[in-house]
Specification:
The complex is a heterodimer.
Chain A: H1 2-24, H2 26-42, H3 44-47, H4 50-67, H5 71-77, H6 83-111, H7 128-153, H8 178-186, H9 189-210, H10 226-250, H11 277-285, H12 294-318, H13 322-356, E1 363-364, E2 369-370
Antiparallel strand pairs in A: 1-2
Helix pairs in contact in A: 2-10, 8-9, 8-10, 9-13, 11-12, 12-13
Chain B: H1 18-44, H2 47-82, H3 86-136, H4 140-194, H5 199-220, E1 243-249, E2 258-261, H6 292-313, H7 323-328, E3 329-335, E4 338-343, E5 368-370, E6 375-377, H8 388-401, H9 411-414, H10 423-426, H11 429-432, H12 459-465, E7 476-477, E8 486-487, H13 490-497, H14 512-526, H15 546-549, H16 584-588, H17 591-594, H18 615-626, H19 663-671, H20 673-676, E9 696-698, E10 705-708, H21 709-731, H22 745-753, H23 781-793, H24 813-816, H25 819-827, H26 829-832, H27 845-855, H28 861-865, H29 873-887, H30 893-902, H31 905-920, H32 969-979, H33 1007-1018, H34 1035-1049, E11 1057-1058, E12 1061-1062, H35 1082-1085, H36 1088-1096, H37 1116-1129, E13 1158-1163, E14 1171-1176, H38 1179-1189, H39 1212-1216, H40 1222-1230, H41 1232-1235, H42 1260-1279
Helix pairs in contact in B: 2-5, 2-8, 3-4, 18-33, 19-21, 21-29, 21-31, 22-27, 25-27, 29-30, 29-31, 32-33, 34-37, 36-37, 38-42, 40-42
Classes of the chains: A mainly alpha, B mainly alpha.
């Protein structure tokens, strides 16, 4: 049946192709997701109503079906190791909606001095046997069966033996690392591959110590934990999941960007003339050669980074986040601020790259310090 | 689970409905269990197992059919044995009775012996126990007790031992008796059987029948129980068939494991005989159709099948009792639906035809039927009403569906144990590529076949590609992208010329079902195999793998020149002509089957498969060499050793061009070589898709815009010609002026093309095409064309040669060359260009003048009337700017422009020309002194076939290989590039910059040539993994290869037949004896030393004819190579020829008599009617007399120069000069016709001819030897 409507879908696809390609470009997609998330969080009580959710699902489904008429798109999404990501996109969307929906209901209830939905559960405890063990076991069986089914139907994408002389193009990390790999585009490997992942772990470890807000335990809410949830969602949805999606579906040969309907042509050429801050300042503005010594050469970048790391938090503490600063105290606030600064260094670098072809803010290869 | 009491405050109760939970649990368990079962099934259910299971059934059926045929033949045999003579039978029965009695006795004796043995062994244990305790007793009392017991036990043991010995002897005795009776019976049975004269044969038939039964049992006894998962480790009936190659590895950069191939797991028949294509034709014919052709074909198929079975039933022994059975097979026919086999004779026609079968209504013969032709046998399946024909039909249908089961089509060459490439050493994927270790259709990287190029460029388009200087008149294309008529731009047309549909692609063939299967299976594994370097080669490209191991260039061992080619030392005494049968073909004929021609063509003899030849690859390689591709594209000769035999430059010397032709001609030629001579190998550099009218140049650096491509090209040509002209004007020698008027053009024409004029003709046509003007001189051009076309199709031992001629077509030569130059060239070509292939024909001065007079009349009017390019200083200046700026030798672009402006106009032209000769690499094919050390300009191709497909720059070329079903992209890339070398500039903005464009010229290859060359390019594979297995030519092979290279290069086969190929001029020469000789046996004919000298400095061997071996100017190394080559071909001793060991006169005793003086009668030379008595003292004198009487000198002139018209045989002087080998002379005298068919030499000494009794007592052997001695040692000396 699909074959009969395929030509029509193809027509539609060709019509929307320029739009889709435009939207899929990371410099559009990432800000779009960021702004979209902000809007959703602002109007979460309205947009989580089922009618909108169903509408959004239908639009997504329609896009998916139309896209199936594209051979390249179909190729990519049906690649066995990409299937989890397709599932991830769907399930993530659902759970994101579910939690926000519940949060919206709960927040409304709390305004009306009603207990949250979850309080309606009869008891806080259930019996281990049979309630817990049984459902765990049923899940285990069902999931095992699903995994077996998966392994039968989607063959492991075994490729040819690895050869140092003949690497696949593009060479991709496992799907869960694609966000990390995407960061490598904007950062020095040392920074993107070691420092940032470590800080992610450190940040997760630090949560119980810095997040002292007692509310929101055991029930969904947004209003009562706005800062924590917003921060998390930006870190997770925008800077991790979106990057994975970009890395999986939109990064093609030579790690170039391709639209979802574009063939990954290895001969595609993109101008990537990236410059460092030092070059912008010394060569671009001051019209002179770069100083020999790294300190004068990189002084602007160093100052910029220093200011970002010190003045920024101080200013924030004094202005917008004054309340938070009061709540957390100096040390906690410093930790939170530092983690936030690191997190937001990513979009900053991305924007710098897209807008100014910025490569490094501080570039001191002499000491392996490239920021 | 019982329901709990209702919840209290402290008791949470159940959260979920327990019943529902249990249901869910059950469902999930069942689901999981089902999935596990599916997993096991999925693991178990492999397509290759199906293949093998089907094979069991099929093989059993096949064996059953053989059995049926055999049974029909042996049924009466059994009956005969059963009704053997009653006396013999009675004797056997009596013996059998006795044997039965004895057998009982033996059984009893065996039982007694067994009991005794057991008793004795048991007793030994009691004795041992007693002995132990007696020795280890603690008290005396105990010791005494045990001692006593020990004694008793020892006695008992001795008693039992005796009993055992008795029993043993008894058993042995009976056994001997039984054996005796058995052998008596055997003898009697044998005696009974031997009463039948054919018993031995029949016994074997029975044996064979038994074997077949066992085979059927084995094959049909497929037991699925043994395949049950977890049990299948024991003895699974289906197994992966794999071969681990010892010499060939896989190349993983970091490791090199031995290569493993499992292809035979599914390709069941491929590595075995018995599944040959000829036995199981793909095409099963619809019998309902009833067309005669189809019926005939069907019968052929049946014949092949049955003869295959018969060959299997009666083994293929060369000699033995079964051979004649095969020979008796005459015909196989289908009568209605019954299979009839006709044997010549030898069977008892007991019963005739019986009536229709009741059940099926099928008529069949039950057994034999005597007919006029012979005996018919039809076999039926015992106990059933179906005929073998039915069974056979079923089988054929089966086989059609199992095409991949067939025996490898070149089994004798590629797979068999005795082949040069045995399966155990070479495997499959080394040639076929793909993933040999996979047993999954898709993951093995199966590739569909390469589709035929059906809609290759239309003639118009092909012409368009060669358009010259008129704006291309492009065809209107009716529909372009469904948008109606559109006038194509040149660029677009060129692009489309090689676009999808016009480039061969691999494609899914067959019915929709098959194609669907291909797509599904391959699609599943496509993504993960994307980066596999070598997908399986489509069938037509498999030959590309040959070059992996055969770097020397596909060496093929020469065919033996004679059936008994191992001439070695010739047999002492007279050779027996039967043994010296030199016509190998006759010896190979199968006398048995050939005798059946009388059967009205209904007998279809299975033909021997042709020897495998990678023709496309061979031709591609030859083209690569002949077109001089290596002039620009290096091919490492350390890898591809055939490159060692190539010429330095394939084109003529440009340093001496100035006195050879005119500048005007050269301008026109460079502009459009094929306009002057369509088949020239000189490619076109201009007028192509990226430098013609439609093209506008944008300047890279000098800033000019939009110059018309054609105008630009013309000025490039102008500058190049100017430069080359200036170059050579300084170097070219002035040749002596000839007066063409003194020459006689008509005589010249006779020299060039008058093949039957024995006073004038030279073999020019062997290398050149010549337009013949005079009607009387015209040779049968249709015939010539025929053999010329045929020549391209011919199989050559080591390659195929091209349709293009060795030298240039002489049409229009008068428009090209200067008469003075031509005369000098004809006098001695090598003096003008040392590397030329053109030989010196040793023409007299008058002949030179005649030929010059003739050739200068061959004008190319169309070409002459064309206007040469005129200089356009403005554009030339722009070119100069661009080149000078591109040089980057001056600080700024303006400096460069100024520098050009300062140049004189002439200097500027030369500057441009010099730069462009380098840019376009003219020196790759031509000698240009200024660039003699410059490196070639093209990409090195040594490992091109291993180039990663993604690194091939398809750029914007509209060959959308991504869209094709299954790309074989390297081939496609090469194919499109060879068709339109500039195609990858299509749509590329950089191509607007003049010297960034692609610059490979267009050779105008035919589609076939393009395909061949592309195959050759795909073959250039980096072959690390097969290094150990690569073919290493022996010293002998190397010499043959070198010899063949010379033969190819100098076109020896234009005149001579060498290795069975060549003789191009033969059809033009009416008299066979004037044709240049077939060089078969040259090695054993002439002495190496003479041949060496002759090659260096040939002389008139046939002075009575003007067509003689020309002087090629070989150097000594080349001459030696050729001499060795001929010696090896003939397996003749090299380098020295010694006196025949059985010579009647040794070197020391030449003058000494070896025969007693006697008197003999000879004819009087003055009056043949008279007889004279002569007395002779020795054999030489006798030989001389014989020599005189046989009038040898009446045909063989004694000296050159005095050759009467009648004498047209080689001159004896050369014999004295050491030309012929004595051994060869002996063979020759013995049977000239055997060595050279159609020779005029009479055979005086043929076997069976009466010999002249008076010479050497009528002993032909002695006569011959004496004549040879006389000719070799005496004849010349005597004359002197």
């Amino acid at each position: 049946m699909f074959e009969t409507i395929r030509p029509h879908l193809y027509e539609i696809k060709e019509t929307i192709r320029p739009i889709v390609t435009f939207l899929a470009a990371p410099e559009i997609l990432v800000p779009l997701v960021a702004i979209g998330l902000a809007l959703i969080l602002k109007y979460y009580r309205v947009v989580t109503k089922p009618v909108y959710a169903i509408g959004a699902s239908l639009v997504a489904l329609a896009f998916f079906v139309v896209s199936l008429s594209d051979a390249h798109f179909t190729d990519i999404i049906t690649k066995p190791d990409n299937v989890p990501i397709v599932l991830l996109v769907g399930s993530l969307g659902f759970f994101f909606w579910l939690s926000l929906r519940r949060a919206a209901i709960n927040d409304e209830r709390s305004e009306n001095n009603l207990p949250p939905l979850e309080a309606n559960y009869r008891r806080e405890t259930v019996l281990v046997w049979p309630d817990l063990v049984m459902i765990e076991f049923i899940c285990l069986l069902a999931l095992s069966a699903l995994l077996v089914l998966w392994s039968i139907e989607l063959r492991a994408p075994l490729e040819e033996p690895a050869s140092a002389a003949l690497t696949p193009n593009p060479s991709k990390a496992p799907w869960y690392f694609l966000g990390l790999q995407e960061m490598l585009v904007y950062y020095d490997p040392w920074y993107a591959g070691v420092v940032l992942p470590t800080l992610i772990v450190v940040g997760l470890v630090a949560i119980p110590y810095v997040d002292t807000n007692p509310r929101g335990n055991g029930y969904f809410t947004l209003k009562e934990r706005k800062f924590a949830i917003t921060t998390f969602l930006y870190g997770f949805l925008v800077f991790w999941v979106t990057l994975i999606i970009i890395g999986t579906f939109l990064r093609g040969a030579n790690w170039n960007f391709f639209g979802p309907y574009d063939h990954w042509d290895p001969h595609l050429q993109r101008p990537l003339m990236n410059v460092n801050i030092s070059e912008i300042v010394w060569v671009g503005m001051l019209k002179t050669a770069l100083p020999e010594h790294w300190l004068p050469r990189e002084i602007f970048g160093i100052l910029l980074v220093g200011a970002y790391m010190t003045i920024g938090p101080a200013l924030l503490a004094a202005t917008i986040l004054r309340k938070l600063f009061k709540d957390l105290g100096f040390i906690r606030f410093s930790v939170v601020a530092m983690l936030m600064l690191f997190m937001f260094s990513l979009p900053i670098k991305m924007l710098g790259r897209w807008l100014f072809n910025l490569k490094y803010i501080v570039y001191i290869p002499e000491y392996f310090v490239n920021l | 689970m019982s329901k709990r009491p209702s919840a209290t405050n402290n008791d949470p109760g159940y959260l979920y409905n327990q019943k529902r939970l249990l249901q869910l649990f059950f469902l999930s368990s069942a689901f999981c269990g089902a999935m596990l079962a599916w997993m096991v099934w999925d693991d178990f259910d492999r397509p290759w197992k199906d293949e093998q299971r089907t094979e069991f059934v099929w093989e059993a059926e096949r064996l059953g059919l053989e059995q049926s045929i055999l049974k029909a033949r042996t049924k009466d045999l059994r009956a005969k044995i059963g009704t053997a003579t009653s006396a013999g039978k009675a004797k056997i029965e009596a013996l059998q009775e006795e044997l039965d009695g004895k057998q009982d006795e033996l059984n009893k004796a065996k039982g007694a012996w067994y009991a005794a043995d057991r008793n004795y062994k048991k007793q030994k244990q009691f004795t041992g126990e007693a002995g132990y305790f007696a020795g280890h007793a603690r008290t005396d009392e105990e010791r005494a007790k045990w001692q006593k017991k020990l004694e008793a036990e020892t006695d008992e043991e001795a008693r039992l031992y005796t009993a055992l010995q008795v029993a043993k002897r008894r058993r042995n005795a009976v056994q001997v008796e039984v054996k005796a009776i058995t052998s008596l019976i055997d003898e009697s049975v044998d005696a009974v059987i031997e009463e039948d004269s054919e018993s031995e044969l029949r016994k074997r038939e029975l044996g064979r029948l038994k074997l077949l039964e066992r085979g059927i049992k084995q094959k049909s006894g497929y037991n699925p129980l043994r395949e049950i998962p977890l049990l299948d480790f024991l003895a699974p009936p289906t197994k992966v068939e794999q071969v681990v190659l010892q010499q060939v590895t896989d190349d993983y950069e970091f490791a090199a494991p031995k290569k493993v191939d499992r292809c035979a797991t599914c390709h069941i028949g491929s590595i075995r005989l018995g599944f040959e294509e000829s036995q199981f034709p793909i095409e099963i014919l619809d019998m309902d159709d009833g067309s005669e052709e189809k019926v005939a074909k069907f019968e052929e198929a049946v014949y092949r099948f049955v003869s295959g079975i018969v060959a299997g039933v009666w083994p293929k022994a060369e000699k033995g009792p079964f051979q004649y059975e095969r020979d008796k097979l005459r015909q196989v026919e289908i009568h209605n639906e019954t299979l009839g086999i006709l044997f010549g004779d030898g069977y008892d026609p007991d019963e005739g035809m019986i009536e229709a079968d009741e059940k099926t209504g099928v008529k069949f013969w039950k057994r034999w039927k005597k007919t006029e032709e012979g005996d018919w046998v039809t076999a039926t399946k015992e106990g059933e009403g179906t005929s073998i024909a039915d069974e056979y039909l079923k089988l054929l249908v089966n086989m059609r569906e199992r095409g991949h089961w067939r025996t490898h089509p070149h089994f004798e060459f590629m797979v068999g144990d005795n082949s040069p490439h045995p399966y155990e050493e070479v495997g499959c994927s080394i040639c076929h590529a793909g993933r040999g270790w996979s047993t999954d259709f898709g993951y093995a990287w199966h590739t569909p076949p390469l589709m035929q190029i059906d809609n290759w460029m239309s003639d118009e388009w092909a012409a368009g590609l060669d358009f010259h200087h008129e704006p291309l008149n492009l065809p209107d294309v009716a529909t372009v992208n469904g948008k109606g008529k559109e006038k194509l731009s040149l660029d677009r047309a060129m692009a489309m010329g090689a676009a999808e549909g016009n480039t061969p692609q691999v494609g899914f063939v067959g019915d929709a079902e098959t194609a669907k299967k291909w797509k599904k299976e391959l699609g599943r594994s496509k993504t993960s195999l994307k980066y596999w370097m070598y997908p399986q080669l489509p069938k037509s490209l498999v030959q590309a793998s040959c070059l992996k191991c055969h770097h020397e260039g596909l060496y093929a061992s020469p065919e033996p020149e004679y059936a008994n080619a191992h001439l070695g030392p010739p047999p002492a005494g007279l050779p027996d002509l039967e043994d010296w049968d030199i016509h190998a073909k006759e010896a190979n004929d199968d006398p048995g089957l050939a005798a059946s021609g009388e059967y009205d063509g209904r007998l279809f003899i299975p033909t021997e498969p042709e020897p495998y030849q990678p023709k496309n690859l061979q031709r591609g390689m030859n083209n690569f060499i002949e077109f001089g591709c290596y002039g620009c594209h290096k091919l490492d000769e350390n890898v591809y050793s055939f490159m060692k035999h190539t010429r330095a430059k394939v084109g003529p010397d440009l340093d001496k061009i100035a006195t050879k032709t005119t500048k005007k001609w050269m301008l026109k030629w460079v502009e459009d070589p094929k306009g002057f001579r369509p088949e020239t190998r000189m490619p076109a550099f201009w007028g192509l898709s990226n430098n013609s009218h439609d093209f506008k140049f944008r300047f890279a650096d000098s800033g000019f815009e939009n110059v018309d491509g054609k105008a630009w090209s013309e000025q490039e040509i102008y500058a190049i010609v100017e430069f080359l002209w200036a170059q050579s004007a300084a170097r070219a020698p002035e040749y002596p002026i000839v007066d063409v008027k003194k020459g006689d053009a008509a005589r010249g024409e006779r020299i060039v093309v008058g093949y039957d004029d024995k006073n004038l003709a030279k073999a020019c046509i062997a290398c050149h095409d010549v337009p013949v003007k005079t009607a009387s001189l015209k040779y049968d051009s249709a015939k010539l064309k025929g053999w010329w076309d045929q020549r391209t199709k011919k199989q050559y031992g080591w390659g195929e040669r091209m349709a293009r001629r060795q030298g240039p077509n002489l049409a229009g030569i008068g428009s090209k060359v200067d008469a003075n130059w031509l005369a000098a060239w004809l006098r001695d070509p090598k003096a003008i260009w040392h590397d030329t292939n053109m030989p010196n024909l040793r023409l007299t001065e008058q002949e030179v003048l005649d030929v010059v007079a003739y050739l200068t009349t061959l004008k190319h009017d169309g070409f002459d009337n064309k206007n040469p390019i005129a200089m356009d200083a403005g554009i030339l200046k722009k070119i100069a700017y661009e080149l000078k700026v591109g040089e980057r030798s001056l600080p700024t672009n303006q400096d460069a422009i100024n520098a050009i402006d300062r140049m004189k106009e002439n200097d500027r032209t030369l500057f441009v020309g010099e730069k462009l000769v380098k840019h376009y690499g003219c020196f790759g094919c031509h000698n240009v002194d200024a660039y003699k050390d410059t490196k070639p300009i093209g990409t090195e191709l040594t490992t091109w076939g291993s180039k990663i497909v993604e690194r091939l720059e398809f750029k914007h070329a509209p060959i959308d290989f991504h869209k094709t079903d299954w790309p074989y992209a390297r081939f496609q890339f090469a194919f499109a590039k060879l068709t339109n070398p500039r195609i990858y500039d299509y749509g590329d903005p950089r191509a607007n910059i003049p010297y960034e464009r692609l610059k490979m010229p267009r050779f105008g290859f035919t589609t076939e040539e393009t395909k061949d060359l592309a195959t050759f390019l795909v073959a250039l594979i980096d072959d690390r993994e097969v290094k150990a297995a690569a073919f290493k030519p022996s010293a002998r092979d190397e010499k043959i290869i070198a010899g063949r290279a010379l033969v190819e290069r100098f076109n020896c086969q234009g005149c001579h037949v060498i290795e069975g190929q060549g003789g191009d001029v033969w059809p033009a020469i009416k008299e066979p004896k004037w044709q240049p000789p077939d060089l078969k046996g040259q090695g054993i004919k002439t002495q190496p030393d003479w041949l060496f000298k002759f090659l260096l400095n040939p002389y008139e061997l046939r002075p009575w004819h003007s067509m003689n071996m020309p002087t090629f100017g070989f150097n000594e190394a080349q001459a030696r190579t050729l001499v060795e080559y001929f010696a090896i071909l003939s397996e003749a001793p090299y380098p020295f020829e010694e006196a025949a060991p059985d010579s009647l006169v040794g070197p020391d005793e030449r003058p000494v008599a070896y025969a007693q003086a006697k008197s003999i009668t000879i004819k009087d030379p003055k009056d043949p009617t008279k007889k004279l008595q002569r007395s002779v003292r020795n054999a030489l004198e006798e030989a001389k007399l014989m020599f005189g009487e046989y009038q040898c000198e009446s045909c063989h002139a004694p000296e050159a120069g005095v050759v009467p018209e009648a004498q047209r045989a080689p001159i004896f002087m050369h014999t004295r000069d050491g030309r012929l080998r004595p051994d060869w002379m002996r063979l020759w005298l013995y049977g000239p016709g055997k060595l050279q068919a159609g020779t005029a030499m009479p055979g005086f000494f043929n076997k069976g001819l009466p010999q002249d009794k008076q010479y050497f007592d009528g002993d032909a052997g002695k006569q011959i030897r004496a004549l040879i001695d006389y000719l070799t040692y005496h004849y010349g000396n005597e004359k002197r």
